[in-house]
Design brief:
CATH architecture of the domain at 626-767: Beta Barrel
CATH superfamily of the domain at 626-767: Head decoration protein D
Helix content: under 10%
Radius of gyration: 55 Å
Number of helices: 0
Largest sheet: 10 strands, antiparallel
Structural class: mainly beta
Number of strands: 55
Amino acid sequence: MPYGTIKVDTVTFTDAGVDKSVSISGLVQNPTFSGNVTVTGTISGVTVTGTTASFTSGNFTNISGGTHTITSGVFATGSAANPSISFTSDPNTGIYSPGADQVTISTSGSGRVFVDQAGNVSVGTSTNYVFDQIASGRPLVVAADSSSTTIGASTAALAIVNNNTTTSNTSQINFAALTGASANQYSSAIISAIHGARVNGQYPTGALVFSTSSATNSAPTEKLRITSDGKVGLGTSAPGANLDLVDGGTFSGIRVASLTTDATIKVGHFTGRHYRNAEESVLGLRITSDSSANSVILGGGSGVLNAATNIQFYTAANSTTTVGTQRMIIDSSGRVGIGTTSPNRLLEVSGGSGIDNFIRVNVAGGAAKSGIEFSHGGTAYAQLYYNNVAPYDVSLLQQYTTGSLILGTNDTERARIDSSGRLLVGTSTARSTFYNTAITSNLFQLENVSNAVGATFYANANNNSSAGFLLLGKSRGTSLGSNTAVQSGDIIGSIVFAGSDGTQPVNGAEISAQVDGAPGTNDMPCRIVFATTADGGSSPTERMRINNQGSVSFIKTVAASFGSVGVTIYGAGSGAAGSVDITRDGGQPLAVNRLTNDGTLIEFYKDTTLQGNIAVSGSTVSYNGAHLSRWSQLPGGAERTEILRGTVLSNIDEMCAWGEEDNEQLNRIKVSDVEGDPNVAGVFQAWDDDDDTYTDDFYCAMTGDFIIRIAEGVTVQRGDLLISAGDGTAKPQDDDIIRSKTIAKVTSTHVICTYDDGSYCVPCVLMAC
C-alpha cells in the first residue's frame, strides 16, 4: 500500500451519537440524511429532507418542504395542471413552459398569461393573433410603479409602447371579434397614438386617433382625431379649429339637449358673464336660456342686450375680423330687421352692396297657399301667392272687379293689366283701331314715347339648343281653350310691319304662317309667306315662300325641284332635299363673281371633306381634284351585279334608255374581256343611288384623276402606261407610246385598296377618251 493511503471498507462518523455516512474521495454513504448538512462536493442518489437546505451547486430533481433559496438550477417544463414552479397547498397554480422559449402562468390548472418566443404577451389565449393593421404581435405592459418616470403615477396603468427610435412611430390598441379558426383576425375598431420625435428627457408630441369599421369586411378608417395641439377633428385628420366637424356626405352638426334643465351652447371667446344691461365681447356662437342672459348671439360681435328686449344675430365679415357685425334683430316692438339695426316695418330687409335680398314664404304641404296678401279692414285687395295644388301656380291677383294691376319703377308706371285683361306696356290706354280695323280684342300693346320700341326674347340656355321664342297660334274654336282644327289656307300667325300715313297705321310688309295642306292628328303642314308692299301699292304682295316640304321660292309662288310642276315659272328656289332651282326667260341663271384677287369660286365636299373646287386665275378657270365621268348601264339594261371599283370597262353598241328621255350620246358598257382592248370606255366608279326610278345606272370614270384595278401578282411602276388585261384589270403596256389601247398612266404605286381576289387599286390618270 503506498504512502499516505488508507484503505477501509466502511468509515462511520457520529454526530451527537448519531451515525453519519458521507462520501469522501469516492466513498459513498447509503443511509438517508436528516438535519442540517453542509456539502462542498457532489451528492448523488440521496434524498434530502428537512426544514432548511442551502445548496450552491448541483442537480436536484425534487425539493419539498419549507422555504428554499436556490441560486441556480434547471426546472422541468411542467404543465398547466402541474407547473414547474408552484406554491404551497396550490400545486396547480404557478409557472411552466409549454414549449421552447415560452413561459406561461397558470391558475387552477389552466394557462392564463402566455409569453412567446418573440416576447409577445397574450392574455386568455395561447395564440398571439396577427391583425390586419399590425404586422406582428406587440408587447403588453401593465405597471404601477411610483418611482417610474416612464409610466408616471403610481396607479396601475396599461402602457402601449413603440420603442422605435425613428422620428415617426405609432402605437395601437386593436379591437376584434374572433369569427373563425384563422390566426389572422380583422379589427373592428382601433385606437392609435401617433408619436412625434423622441427626445431624451422630454415628452414627445403625440396625436390620438380613433378608427372604426363602418361596414362588414371593411377595414377601420379614421373617424376622430385629437392632434398634438389639442384640436379635435371629426371627419378630418387636419382640424383647423379646436373642434372641427367635416361633412362626409351626411349631416354634420352638434346637438345639445337636456330633458330636465336648461341647455346652453357657448362657442368662442367670452370676456365675462352676460348680465342685463352689461356689455360683453363675443366671438362665435352663444345660445342660452340662462336666466341671467336671456339672449341669443350668433356670429361675432359686440353689443348691449337691453333687459332681454332684443334678440341680435351677428356674423364676422372675414377671418381677420375681431368684432362681428349685427345682421338681424328682433326689437322690443317685435319688428324684425335683416341688414338693418333699426327696422321701421314689421319686417324690413336691407341688403348691403352685392347682397341679394329675398324673402321666402313656405308651405309645408297639402292644399294650402303661401304668399303675401294686401288687405284693408280684413278685406283682401291683392294677393301674391303660390298654390300648393297642381299645376302649382304662382299668382299675382288684383282682387277687385275694377281697377288695374300696375307695375312701375322710379315712381313711374311701366306696365299694367287693365280691367279687360289687356297687358299694356309703355302706355296706360289701349288703342281701339288699326288700319280701319277694330283691335279691342288685342291683349298686348307695347308703346314708347321717346325711343324706338322693341321686345327681346333671349335665352341663356345652359349650353343647350333652347332659345327665346314668340308663339302665335290659331284655333277655329269659339271659346277659350278650344282646339277646333284649322283648315288649309288658314293664317295661323302673322307679323305685320306698319307705318303711320298721317292718319292711321298702314301695313308695309308682312310675314305670315299659313296652313299648307289638310291638318291631321299631330300633323300641321304649314308654309311661311313673306310679302312686301310695292310703291303705290295698297297692300303687301307675296315675294317669297317656304312650303311644307322645305322648298324655298323667290319671286314665284310655287317652289319645286327640276322635273316637278312649277319649275318653268320665272324665279328661283331651293328644293326640300337641298337642290337649288333657278329659272329665267333669258340670260345666265347663275353668276359667280370673285373680286380683287384670284382663287376658289366653288368648293365641292363629300361628308364634310373637301374633294375639289373650281378656281379662277386670271382668265383661266380650273377644275381641281376632279375627273370626267358619265352615266351608263349594263348590256340589255341588266340589274346590278358586283363590279369592283376601278374595274376596266368596254363600250358596246347599245344605247342607254331612260323612259321617254332622248339619249344621243351615252352607250351601254360591259366589263372589258379583251387584252389590249382599244374600245375601253373607262373604269367602274359606283352605282347611281341618287333616285329610286333608275336603280341600275352607274358612273363610268373616263378622264382625269382616279384609281384603276391591277391583278394579283402584276407589278406596276409610277409612269407606266396601262392597257386592258382582258379580265377587268389593267396591266403595263410594253412601250411608252400612247396608243388607242392606252387607258391610263400610273401616278403612284401607293395601294389604295386590296380586294378578296388579291387584285388591288393604285392612283392613275385616265386616258380612256
